[in-house]
Amino acid sequence: MKLTLKHILAAILLMLSLAAPVAAGPLEDGYTAYTRSDFATAMRLMRPLADQGHVTAQTVVGLMYYFNYGDYVSAYMWFRLAAAQGNTFAEMFLKDTADKMTREQIVQAEKLAREWNPTTQLPR
Fold it and tell me: Which of 41, 60, 73, 123 is 20 to 30 A from 82, comparing alpha carbons?
């Protein structure tokens, strides 16, 4: 399945519309920064939410690693965490990301996902 930017943005907007109200401010601000291509600000706002286990933020952080930083290991890890919470968008990207990785990279990303917890410092 070929993913277009239009499909990705539509999916992100859908995810944001379902986001928990408690995380709405930073999540929306992070998404706005992302759409402005201000990835440093988007990561600064989204990463703490992802670290807390917020599934939408985990997916968006995965997208930033995938599209903007070319770090498939980190992207895979975040997609794996979001997919484990039932996020089907993350599941789709998990498969796509795996297609771009070596077996060793997948093993590394799976290990990071297994060892992840909110207090673990992971690549930013």
Answer: 41
80-111 tens-digit pLDDT:
999 999 999 999 999 999 999 999 999 999 99
Contacts of 85 (CB under 8 A, 6+ apart): 53, 55, 58
Tell me how far apart the alpha carbons of residues 81 and 51 are, in angstroms, rounded to a whole number: 10
Residue 33 neighbours by CB under 8 Å, 6+ apart: 39, 41, 42, 45
Two structure tokens written together for 57 = 């933020």
Name the residue ranges covered by the structural domains of the chain: 5-15+23-115
Contact 19, 49 (CB under 8 A): no
> DSSP string spanning 76-90?
HHHHHHHHHTT-HHH
Q: Residue 50 burial (CB < 10 Å; 0-12/13-18/19+)?
A: buried
Is 5-15+23-115 assigned to CATH 1.20.1090.10?
no
